[in-house]
Sequence to fold (158 residues):
Amino acid sequence: MGVRHFYKFLSDAGFLDRKIIELMYKRGWRIEDEKKIEESLRKHGVYLTNLVKCSQPHPLPPSKKAIQEQLPLLKREIQAVSPRHIVTFGKIPFETLTGQKILLRDYLKKVRNNTYKPHKSIDILGKQYDVLPSFFPLGHGNTPKAIEILKYIKKHYR
Fold:
Protein backbone atom coordinates (compact mmCIF):
# COMPACT_ATOMS: atom_id res chain seq x y z
CA MET A 1 0.00 0.00 0.00
CA GLY A 2 2.82 2.41 0.74
CA VAL A 3 3.63 5.17 3.19
CA ARG A 4 1.41 7.71 1.41
CA HIS A 5 -1.68 5.66 2.30
CA PHE A 6 -0.57 5.37 5.92
CA TYR A 7 -0.17 9.14 6.10
CA LYS A 8 -3.66 9.58 4.64
CA PHE A 9 -4.97 7.23 7.31
CA LEU A 10 -3.30 9.33 10.04
CA SER A 11 -4.81 12.44 8.49
CA ASP A 12 -8.30 10.88 8.39
CA ALA A 13 -7.90 9.96 12.08
CA GLY A 14 -6.89 13.53 12.99
CA PHE A 15 -3.20 12.94 13.71
CA LEU A 16 -1.72 14.63 10.64
CA ASP A 17 -2.65 17.89 8.93
CA ARG A 18 -5.05 17.18 6.07
CA LYS A 19 -3.71 19.98 3.84
CA ILE A 20 -0.35 18.25 3.50
CA ILE A 21 -1.94 14.99 2.42
CA GLU A 22 -4.39 16.62 0.02
CA LEU A 23 -1.55 18.45 -1.69
CA MET A 24 0.56 15.31 -1.83
CA TYR A 25 -2.25 13.35 -3.49
CA LYS A 26 -2.97 16.21 -5.91
CA ARG A 27 0.55 16.86 -7.18
CA GLY A 28 2.50 13.79 -6.06
CA TRP A 29 5.14 13.26 -3.41
CA ARG A 30 7.97 15.78 -3.09
CA ILE A 31 10.98 15.61 -0.82
CA GLU A 32 9.87 18.73 1.09
CA ASP A 33 6.70 16.86 2.07
CA GLU A 34 8.79 14.73 4.40
CA LYS A 35 9.69 17.76 6.54
CA LYS A 36 6.08 19.00 6.59
CA ILE A 37 4.83 15.57 7.66
CA GLU A 38 7.46 15.32 10.38
CA GLU A 39 6.50 18.78 11.71
CA SER A 40 2.81 17.90 11.66
CA LEU A 41 3.38 14.60 13.48
CA ARG A 42 5.41 16.41 16.14
CA LYS A 43 2.67 19.03 16.51
CA HIS A 44 0.15 16.23 17.07
CA GLY A 45 2.48 14.41 19.51
CA VAL A 46 2.96 11.35 17.31
CA TYR A 47 6.11 9.24 17.07
CA LEU A 48 6.04 6.33 14.61
CA THR A 49 8.05 3.14 14.75
CA ASN A 50 7.83 -0.51 13.76
CA LEU A 51 7.95 -3.67 15.82
CA VAL A 52 10.48 -5.12 13.39
CA LYS A 53 13.02 -2.63 12.11
CA CYS A 54 14.04 -4.25 8.83
CA SER A 55 11.75 -4.76 5.87
CA GLN A 56 10.94 -8.20 4.63
CA PRO A 57 10.90 -9.36 1.03
CA HIS A 58 7.25 -10.43 1.45
CA PRO A 59 4.03 -9.01 2.94
CA LEU A 60 3.67 -11.72 5.60
CA PRO A 61 3.66 -10.90 9.32
CA PRO A 62 7.10 -10.99 10.94
CA SER A 63 8.28 -14.31 12.35
CA LYS A 64 8.49 -14.85 16.11
CA LYS A 65 12.26 -15.10 15.67
CA ALA A 66 12.44 -11.69 13.94
CA ILE A 67 10.28 -10.13 16.66
CA GLN A 68 12.42 -11.54 19.47
CA GLU A 69 15.62 -10.41 17.72
CA GLN A 70 14.29 -6.86 17.31
CA LEU A 71 12.48 -6.48 20.66
CA PRO A 72 15.54 -5.20 22.60
CA LEU A 73 15.96 -2.38 20.07
CA LEU A 74 12.26 -1.50 20.27
CA LYS A 75 12.47 -1.43 24.08
CA ARG A 76 15.42 0.99 23.96
CA GLU A 77 13.52 3.15 21.47
CA ILE A 78 10.43 3.23 23.71
CA GLN A 79 12.59 4.09 26.70
CA ALA A 80 14.23 6.97 24.80
CA VAL A 81 10.89 8.41 23.60
CA SER A 82 9.08 7.74 26.90
CA PRO A 83 5.58 7.98 25.41
CA ARG A 84 2.45 8.59 27.47
CA HIS A 85 0.67 5.96 25.37
CA ILE A 86 1.64 3.35 22.82
CA VAL A 87 -0.89 2.63 20.08
CA THR A 88 -0.41 -0.75 18.46
CA PHE A 89 -1.74 -1.51 14.99
CA GLY A 90 -2.81 -5.14 14.82
CA LYS A 91 -2.63 -7.99 17.28
CA ILE A 92 1.05 -8.88 16.90
CA PRO A 93 2.56 -5.68 18.35
CA PHE A 94 -0.10 -5.50 21.08
CA GLU A 95 0.48 -9.10 22.16
CA THR A 96 4.26 -8.62 22.00
CA LEU A 97 4.19 -5.49 24.17
CA THR A 98 1.61 -6.70 26.69
CA GLY A 99 1.92 -10.49 26.71
CA GLN A 100 -1.89 -10.63 26.37
CA LYS A 101 -4.04 -12.20 23.67
CA ILE A 102 -6.89 -10.08 22.31
CA LEU A 103 -9.72 -9.92 19.82
CA LEU A 104 -9.65 -6.48 18.23
CA ARG A 105 -13.39 -6.51 17.60
CA ASP A 106 -13.85 -6.48 21.39
CA TYR A 107 -11.93 -3.19 21.54
CA LEU A 108 -14.10 -1.61 18.90
CA LYS A 109 -17.11 -2.51 21.05
CA LYS A 110 -15.36 -0.90 24.03
CA VAL A 111 -14.81 2.28 22.02
CA ARG A 112 -18.48 2.35 21.10
CA ASN A 113 -19.52 1.69 24.73
CA ASN A 114 -17.00 4.22 26.08
CA THR A 115 -15.23 1.52 28.12
CA TYR A 116 -11.97 1.33 26.13
CA LYS A 117 -8.99 1.41 28.49
CA PRO A 118 -5.23 0.98 28.10
CA HIS A 119 -3.36 -2.16 29.10
CA LYS A 120 -0.04 -2.16 30.92
CA SER A 121 2.95 -3.21 28.86
CA ILE A 122 5.44 -5.84 29.76
CA ASP A 123 8.47 -4.53 31.62
CA ILE A 124 10.34 -2.24 29.25
CA LEU A 125 13.72 -1.54 30.82
CA GLY A 126 12.26 -1.04 34.29
CA LYS A 127 9.04 0.73 33.33
CA GLN A 128 5.54 -0.11 32.11
CA TYR A 129 3.61 1.92 29.54
CA ASP A 130 -0.07 2.24 28.64
CA VAL A 131 -0.78 0.30 25.46
CA LEU A 132 -3.87 1.00 23.33
CA PRO A 133 -4.80 -1.58 20.69
CA SER A 134 -6.15 -0.72 17.25
CA PHE A 135 -6.91 -2.52 14.04
CA PHE A 136 -4.12 -2.56 11.46
CA PRO A 137 -5.17 0.25 9.11
CA LEU A 138 -3.89 -0.87 5.71
CA GLY A 139 -3.68 -3.87 3.42
CA HIS A 140 -5.63 -6.72 5.00
CA GLY A 141 -6.43 -4.53 8.00
CA ASN A 142 -9.52 -2.43 8.55
CA THR A 143 -9.07 1.28 7.86
CA PRO A 144 -12.53 2.52 8.97
CA LYS A 145 -12.37 0.65 12.28
CA ALA A 146 -8.78 1.80 12.91
CA ILE A 147 -9.85 5.41 12.24
CA GLU A 148 -12.77 5.06 14.67
CA ILE A 149 -10.44 3.76 17.39
CA LEU A 150 -7.80 6.43 16.74
CA LYS A 151 -10.38 9.22 16.90
CA TYR A 152 -11.48 7.85 20.28
CA ILE A 153 -7.86 7.70 21.44
CA LYS A 154 -7.25 11.28 20.33
CA LYS A 155 -10.34 12.49 22.19
CA HIS A 156 -9.72 10.57 25.43
CA TYR A 157 -5.96 10.00 25.70
CA ARG A 158 -4.24 13.21 24.56
